[in-house]
Amino acid sequence: MAVYTQVSAEALARFLARFDVGDLVSAKGIAEGVENSNYLVETTRDRFILTLYERRVSAGDLPYFLSLLDHLAAQGLPVPPAIADANGRAIHQVEGRPACLIRFLTGVSVSNPTSAQALAAGDALGRMHAALADFPGQRDNNMGQPHWQPLYERCGTSLDDIAPGLHRDLGVAIADLAAIWPHHLPRTTIHADLFPDNVLMLGERITGLIDFYFACTDIRLYDLAVMHAAWSFDATGTGHDAAVGDALVAGYARHFPLSKEDRSAFPGLAVGACIRFTLSRAWDWLNTPADALVTRKDPLAFWRRVRMYDPALASRLPTLA
Amino acid sequence: MAVYTQVSAEALARFLARFDVGDLVSAKGIAEGVENSNYLVETTRDRFILTLYERRVSAGDLPYFLSLLDHLAAQGLPVPPAIADANGRAIHQVEGRPACLIRFLTGVSVSNPTSAQALAAGDALGRMHAALADFPGQRDNNMGQPHWQPLYERCGTSLDDIAPGLHRDLGVAIADLAAIWPHHLPRTTIHADLFPDNVLMLGERITGLIDFYFACTDIRLYDLAVMHAAWSFDATGTGHDAAVGDALVAGYARHFPLSKEDRSAFPGLAVGACIRFTLSRAWDWLNTPADALVTRKDPLAFWRRVRMYDPALASRLPTLA
């Protein structure tokens, strides 16, 4: 959410000269996405996002992410393809960082989606999964269910600094989920982070799906569970908008109707999504200085959502009782 | 250089509805300018910068800054005018902050200006001063010469944490300058911060003068001295590009030829500019946590420039010897 690496106008003009995209007209560092540096770049011909990949995105994963963008763009999804240079290369080095030039998409990210917007977004997720049926790439979900226990252990008892009792309760929830995790459900390539931030809209029309840097191979329905948890609650995780959640599912079901088994597994998958974001936010919280300019996201906002998805589990957890 | 205040797409759309500027199409938080939050906003009709003024800009000064932008835009300078709403108001409140919508200008800020670019920039400064001859606004330069001693005293002996001996040497330089400061030279409205960052260019053409939030009434020639110190050195303040400095002066002299008195006062004004930026950077350095995401600018980069402008003074200062 900041510009970590400065790129001078001169260096940017030299970089653009590798491509057939026109001459530099404007460049602004933008505060967007996971921990990358992004510039909104305008040339005499078009607009682009230049992304420099900082520590969170591994350079080795870039070919996977870019082939995913290309695949989805080729299938007509509103996904920004990476631009290849005169030699056909899309992955470059800029100021010592791996970097890509990606087409700019219009649209804004809503903060409080309406049901109509959620219906469109659920529909877009379904279309995306349908388009990915023949995508050959594979990538482990390094924030997936098998990784929660190790990340939990790395956070350790400091979790109690966030909320007294959180260390015990999160351990209980992770163990509970491990016992019921629906490993048998269909797997595919998922976005894994399709928050409202990562969907561009104009009114009720989807104009862009962005920020695929958590994309991976995992349970297909888990992607909808992540979206449900991200879209249908207020910022504190206490108020739930059932109409928004239902609209997401209805939009998605146009492409992948939910089976009886899907429906029974869904609350568990959603609790899993809550644990995943509670854990990553807790880790960031415990490892980000309070006075840093990056806004630390409240880890408890996702933890509180567990109450809605599994009241029986929540009743056994003092931090949620 | 970061987005301090988040503005949701919904709030932004409501804000834009006050104006006759079309509907929201895109919005990106941008990393630009002094300590304000800036968004690059695109509507169905045009592009704008939305600025939310954070602590460094006083709300009471906004009418002065906006009338200055309007005056310069009306005179044909490449300055972005603030947009008035349906009721003629240009100063608004957004998320509890004073805010203005300003026209977007294309162009990029160069990092290593050429002589031709410096000539154009010096010319633009001269045109700006000529256009300001009948501007009635007045504002004290709160970073001007009379304010250096108090700011120096607030920094105190911590200055020696930046470089051993800096506290003594800076005190000597401030006292020296106070004795020779050319108070009698003509005064006007000056930009006071026209670094390469604040000039937008396309090739050798000036497309924008921006970030007027240090503008004030002070010695006219001091503005050129600030520019000279900002434009004609490398980032460390040791390498001086005389051709770039000469080009700035030559471009400026097309509008305001330098008198003999101007020429003899110029090195002192430039040393003053070096002191001003050494002091403000030292203050920020001493008051910004080392791990904050804002890049702290090296206070010594401006201090080292004193060597070029006044070798005799520098020879008496151990930190510069």
Q: What is the CATH homology-level superfamily of the largest domain in chain A? A: Aminoglycoside phosphotransferase (APH), C-terminal lobe
Secondary structure: helix percent of chain A: 40-55%
Q: Report how far apart the termini of chain A are.
A: 34 Å
Task: Give the number of helices of chain A.
Answer: 12
Strand order of the largest sheet of chain A: 1-2-3-5-4
Known CATH architecture of the largest domain in chain A: Alpha-Beta Complex
- Strand percentage of chain A, roughly? 15-25%
Write down the CATH topology of the largest domain in chain A: Aminoglycoside 3'-phosphotransferase, Chain: A, domain 2
Q: Radius of gyration of chain A over alpha carbons?
A: 20 Å
The number of domains of chain A is 2
Structural features:
321 residues; 12 helices; homodimer; 40% helix; Phosphorylase Kinase, domain 1; 5-stranded antiparallel β-sheet; 15% strand; alpha+beta; 2 domains; two-stranded antiparallel sheet; 9 strands; Aminoglycoside 3'-phosphotransferase, Chain: A, domain 2
How is this structure best summarized?
The structure is a homodimer of 321-residue chains. The first copy, chain A, has 321 residues and is α+β, with helices and mostly antiparallel strands.
Kindly describe this structure.
2 copies of one chain form a homodimer. The model of chain A has no long low-confidence stretch (mean pLDDT 94). In chain A, 40% of the residues lie in helices and 15% in strands. In chain A, the strands form 3 sheets. In chain A, strands 1-2-3-5-4 form a 5-stranded antiparallel beta sheet, covered by helices on one side. The first copy, chain A, has a two-stranded antiparallel sheet with strand order 6-9. A two-stranded antiparallel ribbon of chain A has the order 7-8. Chain A has 321 residues and is of the alpha+beta class. In chain A, a hairpin with a 5-residue loop joins β1 and β2 (36-43). In chain A, α4 (148-155) runs parallel beside α9 (260-287) and α6 packs antiparallel against α9. The first copy, chain A, has 2 domains: 9-103, 2-Layer Sandwich (Phosphorylase Kinase, domain 1), CATH 3.30.200; 115-315, Aminoglycoside phosphotransferase (APH), C-terminal lobe (Aminoglycoside 3'-phosphotransferase, Chain: A, domain 2, Alpha-Beta Complex). The interface between A and B is large, with 35 and 36 residues.
